[in-house]
Amino acid sequence: MIQLFTLVAALAAPNPSVAECHAWAKAEKVTQAQTNACLRRLLSDAYGGKMDGELLTLDPNPATKWEPDFLKEDLERALKHHKTVCYAPSTDPATLCGRSEELFTRQIGRKMSLFEDVNVGSFEAVLGKIIAGQKLTKEDLTPSPDAGFSALTLWKLRNAAYARHGYKFKKQDLNDFFYGPRTGDQKLDNGMLPLTHELKANVTLTAEDGANVRLIKEFEARLK
Questions:
Q1: Per-residue pLDDT averaged across 63-90, rounded?
Q2: How far is residue 31's CA from residue 39's CA, in Å, rounded to a whole number?
Q3: Which residues contact 33 (CB under 8 A, 6 or more apart)?
Q4: pLDDT at res. 15
Q5: Do 205 and 165 contact (CB within 8 A), yes or no?
Q6: Contact 141, 126 (CB under 8 A)
Q7: Most CB contacts within 10 A, which of 62, 80, 164, 212?
């Protein structure tokens, strides 16, 4: 089935910045040209900065550097924009339309998740240490010699130092992650999350909290 947004057209499109595509995702009205360009730009990041027909046969990696910045509502709006140029359903997922839809959908699902990927597994134990006020080590943030935590996971872990005191975040994704509610597959067996607090506009971090935040920022800097 022919799709309006073809790979050839996408490869010829301008290459906007991530910031420009973030603005595209937040906008209520966008042009098809903007959507074409941003779908290609964002999807290419999920393939290590490259994109061709061969790469599109592989699943995109949702753990992009910009994943924490695109909130759930941004990704949901990006999917709406996506449908204006990818309106025809395809039986072949190995297309630009199919893979970009997969990318945004998986990133939405990761917002509430405590699971990194099949190589790293869950980061629940590390999160539990932070919430308990225990000091992290570099080993805690190095789950595997060959794979580390994504930008999204480090973002969650860093903000856990504030969530354990009941801080009310400006970004709703963080409030949802730490304070719930959780349903379906998002429910946890040990009941560690959601945290229950009377949310506060200001909190005071302990020395251990501050040390954890600084350590996590070191790891975040390595991903930039």
A1: 91
A2: 12
A3: 13
A4: 85
A5: yes
A6: yes
A7: 212
Q: Is the dihedral of CA 175, 179, 183, 189 positive or negative?
A: positive
Instruction: Give the separation between CA 205 and CA 25, rounded to whole angstroms.
Output: 34
pLDDT at 100: 94
pLDDT at 187: 66
Tokens of 193: 């999350």
The residue type of 108 is I
Residue bearing tokens 């010829």: 12
Q: Which of 108-122, 169-183, 207-221 ranks highest by mean pLDDT?
A: 207-221
Structure tokens that stand for 72 in this block: 């759930």
Q: What is the 3-state secondary structure (H, E, C) of the chain?
A: CCCCCCHHHHHCCCCCCHHHHHHHHHCCCCCHHHHHHHHHHHHHHCCCCCCCCCHHHCCCCCCCCCCCCCCHHHHHHHHHHHHHHCCCCCCCCCCHHHHHHHHHHHHHHHCCCCEEECCCEECHHHHHHHHCCCCCCCCCCCCCCCCCCCHHHHHHHHHHHHHCCCECCCCHHHHHHHHCCCCHHHCCCCCCCCCCCCCECCCCCCHHHHHHHHHHHHHHHHHC
Please give the backbone phi and psi of residue 122, each rounded to the nearest 5 degrees, phi first. -85, 150
Confidence check: pLDDT of 30 > 50: yes
- Number of C-beta neighbours around residue 144 at 10 A: 11
pLDDT of residue 12: 42
**Which tokens in the block code for residue 39?**
């779908």
Distances (CA, A) of 25 to 1, 31, 121: 27, 12, 29
